[in-house]
Amino acid sequence: MNTIKIASDLAELDKMRTFLKQNLEGLSVSDKDYFKIELALLEICVNIIRYAYPNNKGEIFLKIWLDEGKMYLEIRDWGVPFDPRGLEEPNIREIIKSEKKGGLGVFLSRKLMDGFDYKREKDQNVLTIYKTIKEAQSSI
Fold it and tell me: What is the pLDDT of residues 72-104, one digit of tens each?
């Protein structure tokens, strides 16, 4: 199991990407699944950076591990409580028609991953996502 803590700043997203890449090395992850995982994590982190800490900067804590053929990512922040499971599926046609920016990140993340769960624990938002990985054998 590996962890990293990054500042809630867009400039920190490269650290998150490097962390993910290092932890997926040696696994039988297709390019398609790798990009799904990376995009889902990126969308989640960008939402935290933009909305979790409205008056200041905070931190994002990432943890990655493998269990029974699944790669799990836990994303924690100490920001504004937000349970993304309650969001309704967006009307994509309406978003395109109105040229509205945003509103698809959570929806996209849920569609890209095989599992998506949230809990509030000790003043933290805890989002756990997973992707089924073939031959998930690694030292993570």
Answer: 999 999 999 999 887 777 666 776 666 656 667
Please report where in the chains the tokens 């905070």 appear, as a residue. 58
Domain boundaries, position 80: 2-132
| Structural contact between residues 63 and 19, judged by C-beta atoms closer than 8 angstroms | no
Q: Let me know if residue 105 belongs to a domain.
A: yes
The count of structural domains within the chain is 1
Token pair 């053929």 is at which residue? 69
Is residue 140 a part of any domain in this protein?
A: no
pTM here is 0.85
Q: CA-to-CA distance for 126 and 29, rounded, in angstroms?
A: 25
| Structural domain contains residue 139 | no
Digit-coded pLDDT (tens) for 110-123: 999 999 999 999 99
CATH number of the domain enclosing 85: 3.30.565.10
- Of 115, 139, 98, which Cα lies nearest the Cα of 36? 115
d(C-alpha 136, C-alpha 139), whole Å: 10
